[in-house]
Amino acid sequence: MTVMERPRQIIECGDFALRRWRGQSDFEPMFRLIEESLDHLRPWMPWVASHSEEKTRDFLAKSDAKWDSGDAFDYAVTRDGMLIGMCSTYDLGEN
């Protein structure tokens, strides 16, 4: 398996930025964002049905491991330092 090129930990994008998750220190804002967005996420994100504090903590722990291994790069989307979303990059393999 080919490991993706490691991206920057912070990517400035005009009025918002992508930044690498900061492990468990990001738990509270991430969990709150998901809780506030459940109705909007439910039609698009199947994982919302099993959303919990434990799953959020597990995601953050796995996010660190995936970053370190190069398997995926998960980002917090921030504006003025406030969490407004999340995104990930990962390798789908050769087509």
Structural description of this entry:
- The protein has 95 residues and is α+β, with helices and mostly antiparallel strands.
- It has helices spanning 27-41, 53-69, and strands at 10-13, 16-20, 72-79, 82-90.
- A four-stranded antiparallel β-sheet has the order 1-2-3-4, with helices on one face.
- The two termini are 13 Å apart.
- The relative contact order is 0.24.
- The model has no long low-confidence stretch (mean pLDDT 90).
Strands in their spatial order, largest beta sheet: 1-2-3-4
Alpha carbon gyration radius: 14 Å
Number of strands: 4
Count of helix runs: 2
Shape: globular
| Biggest sheet details | 4 strands, antiparallel
What is the percentage of strand-forming residues?
A: 25-35%
Note poorly predicted spans: none
Q: What structural category do the secondary elements indicate?
A: alpha+beta
- Topology as H/E string? EEHHEE
Quick check: average pLDDT?
A: 90
N-to-C span: 13 Å
Residue share in helix:
25-40%
Concise synopsis of the structure shown:
This protein has helices spanning 27-41, 53-69; strands spanning 10-13, 16-20, 72-79, 82-90. With 95 residues, it is of the alpha+beta class. The protein is globular.
